[in-house]
Amino acid sequence: MEILVNNQAAEELEVDLLVVGVRPDAAYGRPVERLDELTHGAIRRELDARGFDARAGAQVSLPTYGAIRPRNLLLYGLGRGEPDDNAFRLMAAAAIAGARAIRGRTAAIALDESPVAGTTLAAIAEGAELAAYRFSRFKSRIDDAELSRLLIVTAGNGADSARQIEAGRRMAAATNLARDLINTPADEATPAFLADTAASIATRDAMECEIHDRAGIERLGMGALLGVAKASPREPRFIVMRYKASQGGAGHIALVGKGITFDSGGLNLKSAAAMEEQKRDMTGAAIMIAVMSELRWFNPAIEVRAYLPCTENMVGPAAIKPGDVLRSRLGKTIEVMNTDAEGRLVLADALAYACEAKPGVVIDAGTLTAAVRAALGTKVGAIMGNDQKLIERIREAGRAVGESLWELPLVTEYAEELRGSIADLRNVGTSGNAGTILCGLFLKEFVSCPSWAHLDLSGVSFSKQASPLGPAGAVGFGVRTILRYLIGR
After folding, report:
1. pLDDT tens column, 257-266
2. Is 279 known to be catalytic?
3. Which of 71, 134, 270, 332 is catalytic?
4. Catalytic entry in 34, 237, 344, 395
5. pTM over the 0.90 mark
6. Which of 88, 299, 300, 429 could be stapled to 438 by a disulfide with Cβ–Cβ 3.0 to 4.6 Å?
7. Which residue segments constitute the domains of the chain, with CATH numbers given?
């Protein structure tokens, strides 16, 4: 899709759909005033007849019957007050959906006559590309009625407009890459597949990339990762990617992502219904690969390293059993009381390894606990850690891109539940309560960095229903939050 800034009068554009933002005031805003005059009051009469109140997200679609050059009009409510970037992301998404509904190939979004901020242009491009996403690799028939050109109509056309639009597109491209990886069936998206994807990105962007196979993982002493991998005929991989800025600063940031490419639950077998979406259990690794894929373009002045422990969690004669003890890279032993609590095991080894390089910040992410869905539902991810400033900065980055994170406390009194009877630690608590917090406390045992944040994305990684910014399936939640955090440092 081509996205361009255009300062031509909106009513003169030869497009299939014109989208106009509307404010809830007496005149509905100046763009609507002008269009209303050209249509001899038809727009105002239609809006009044429908009781359109221009609340945030409200929409009215109208054919123009030749009164103006755009063939269809979509009036989009911006709500009271000054709209933020999230409002413009959703407005762009409405443009994509509106064009798709009429099988239009061209659309325009008309903004106020005054110049707009560069971030608004980025948000519109980002929202449009996210909403346009489809995963159609395995479809025998593909609907080609998709938008080919989107114009952003504004009086301002600053020198950095093209870069701002490209920045929005890159944010969306990273998210859509994560979506592609997560949506890909587990039979194809294996640990080796993720390693090949990471290596390809690293080659393209002149990054370092190390890929450790089973023998390499054994040499690294990652007994927890190897334990989870025992029953799968597909070889595990431990991937390390390193981005170095062209004008680098001191220190580095470590990103750690859980890469369970399929999770059967092991001998603590999941139900059939719970297993249907378990190709998504590599979300943490997917979003970190996606973040790394756009760092060269954004060029943040900090070194970033990604650590991705990848394996399947399967059932078989060699599978780890409840009660088995694994020795982690850190040397701590872990009593496996539930084989379906495997994500924290692979992250434990990766976190310990990442911390040995003494990063200034560590951020890990993955689909860790069903408990987080019970606590926060499917719209809000969980965050916890040992550095309040870091947590707030990540949450602020999330708010800026429309991804909500809620902090859960690391209640130290609960840690006693993780003390093993014959080993240093258990991988689950004894009470069956506070599962998400206990997972965070378990991971904390392997973190020596004083600035660490853990994101549990189990509730927000995959959706059964479409949203304005994407279809059902992989959401890609977390990519834009982490990118925004890294860029804003």
Report:
1. 999 999 999 9
2. no
3. 270
4. 344
5. yes
6. 429
7. 2-154 (3.40.220.10), 170-487 (3.40.630.10)
